[in-house]
Amino acid sequence: MARAGEHREERRERDLDSRFRALVDENQDAAIRTARRLLGGDASAEDVAQEAFLRAFRGLRRFREEASLRTWFFRILVREVQRHKRWQVVRRVWKTDSLSDAELPSRQAPRGDVGLRRRIGTALEALPVRQREAFVLVHLEQFTTKEAADILGVSLGTAKTHVHRATHALRAHLGDLRPTEPKESGEST
Amino acid sequence: MTDQSTTNEDPNRDEDSPLDQSEDARWIDAVRQVLDDGERSEGARAAFRARLEDRIERRTSSTWRPWLLTASAAFGAMVVWVLVPGGGVDPGNESDVATDSAGLLAYAYYETEYLAVEDEANGFLSDEYQAIANAFDVP
User: Fold this and answer.
1) 109-138 in A: which are within 8 Å (CB) of B?
2) Widest Cα–Cα separation across chain A
3) Predicted structure pTM score
4) CATH code for the domain in which residue A47 is found
5) Please, which residues have CB within 8 angstroms of residue A112's CB and are 6 or more apart in sequence?
6) Segments of chain B with pLDDT less than 70
7) pLDDT category, A106, cuts 50, 70, 90?
């Protein structure tokens, strides 16, 4: 009887482990991207993504399947970004660099037009937090507005409003951006 | 924990013409193109996984760590409170809840509660955590 219970527990542990690995494999790129965009290109995006995965690992056992696992994880990620930004205040007071930043792995050099990326980053930074989060989730990470609302813990109408206002505010600053036509050689920019 | 208080919907939101919407879509494509980081290499992914496994191992191998963190953060906050009059924090920062040294103390308490409670399943926070967040006007 006790052995059956142990087997069940072992199986559950294995299931959780494989579920977590799948979560990491399927979402690590998007998590780092999202963190980077929400942090305004902050170099600690990978670190923040790692913290979010760690929290997901700890919470997975209690996950109640009330949302999709991906939505649940991104909710944790957005909170982790908020937490990181708040702690930046404390780090600024003490003029310390994040220890974890120092141990970051090699980071990719930004591609394309660095000046333009910086302009977009600055415009995103200037948005109110909720608008920035909604815009990044819906337009850059292509979550549905409903999923973004779940992640942000707001109503669907509020999420739509945030996205709409963010888009208009950003277009006011970056209205000159135009998509580049794909080159004939098939290279992407 | 849906945020109903800030619903504040824009009555003009649905009045965009289809032309506006398609222009928005083209403009968003342009933003995506500029921000495109390209594919991360398999090596970078593997390194991320390895670092994560190491972090999980270090951070979950003992049960006393949250309590140590709580104690050390509370001590650190007291030092800040005593040594940094005013805290030297930018009060204009929207995410800056610690606008003075007392705020830093309160904030450190809030953060350590967050670590100690860790009730993040489904992203719902405990009542206790929420009460602290509300008390210090943390978003």
Assistant:
1) 110-113, 116-117, 120, 128-130
2) 70
3) 0.69
4) 1.10.1740.10
5) A189, B33, B34, B36
6) 1-20, 61-139
7) very low
